[in-house]
Fold this sequence. Notes:
Elements: H1 2-9, H2 15-22, H3 26-33, H4 56-66, H5 76-85, H6 93-102, E1 123-125, E2 131-140, E3 147-155, E4 161-167, H7 172-185, E5 193-196, H8 205-213, E6 217-220, H9 230-240, H10 252-268, H11 280-285, H12 288-305, E7 324-326
Parallel strand pairs: 2-5, 5-6
Antiparallel strand pairs: 1-7, 2-3, 3-4
Amino acid sequence: MIDAALTEFRPLISTSAACRLLGKSRATLHRQRHPGPTPETPPPTARPDPSWALTDTERAALLAVLNEDRFADKSPAQVWAVLLDDGAYLASISTMYRVLRAEGQVRERRAQATHPPRVRPELVAAGPDQVWSWDITRLKGPWRGNYFDLYVMLDIFSRKAMRWEVHVTENADLAQAFIENAIIGNGGVAPRAVHADRGTSMTSKPVAALLADLHIAQSHSRPHVSNDNPYSEAQFKTLKYCPAFPGQFGSIHDARTFCDVFFTYYNNDHRHSGIGLYTPSSVHDGSAVTIQAHRQKVLDDAYAANPHRFHGHRPQAPTLPAKVWINQPRPKIETEEAPQTFQAA
Length: 345
C-alpha cells in the first residue's frame, strides 16, 4: 500500500515529502529502488587510466627531476615554479605530490624537535603516610593582579591535609620549608613518596635535595596531564566551591584565617565521599574503623525495627578504602625468562 501511494505521489511532490507523509524511511526506499550487488553480480571492471595520465617513462623522468640535488630542500610547489622559470613544464603540483607519495617520499624534510616519552606516574598507597601529594593554588588578593599562594600537602590515602601555608609568592626555599614543616607537624613521620606537578618550585633543586636526603621518592606529573595529580586538584575544587569561600581576600591575614577555619573543618568534620563518607582525620588515625562499626550497629538496629523499609536488603555501612593510587598500575607482562633476584650481602 505504501509503495503504491509513493508511486502515485511521485509526480506531485518530492520523494522526501512523500516519505514524511507516509511514515516510510527514505533510506529504506532508496535501498529498495537501488539494491546492492548480489553474489551473482559480476565484479566491477577496473577503471582505465585516463588518456592524459603520465606514462611510465614520463613518471620516471619526473621523479628523476624531483630528486635532483638542486631540489633537495624545495617543496613540489617551488620545484614547479623553478621549472616554469626555466621554461619547462613536466606536471602539475598535485601530480608531483602523487608521484612522490607513491615512492614514499612525501614527508617533513626539516629537522623536527623530539621529546622523550614521559614516564606515567604510578603510585599506590595501602595506608596513611605512604604517599603524599602537594600543589600550590592561587587565592585572589584585594586588587586586580594580586594573588596569594596557598601550599597544601595531602595524604592520598586518608585525604587529610597534612600541612597548609599561605605566602605572598612561590619559590624553591618556601617549598622546601613547607615540606619540612609538614613532616615535623606529622611527628617526624615522613612518607615513602611525595607526588607533585612540574611547577618550578616542585622541580627545584632544594626540594629534590631535601627529598633525597630524607630517602623519599620524588614523583611528578606528566606535562599538561592534570589527571596525574587528581587528589590535590580535587581538594582545591572542594576549597573554592565551599559556600563560605569569599572568592577574594583583603589581606594575607584574611586568607590565612579562612584557610585555618576551612582545613580544620575539612580534616575533622567533612565527610569525604572518596573515603566512605568518613572524615580524613578519622581515616588517618584509624578511628574510622570504630566509626564504621558504630554506623553498622545503627543500621542493624534500624533494619531489625523495620525490615520492610529496606526491601529485604540489609544495609551496610560504607567501607573504608583498602588501596588508592595515582594512575592504577598496569599489569606487568611476564617474560619466559625467570626474574632476577638480588640479595643484600
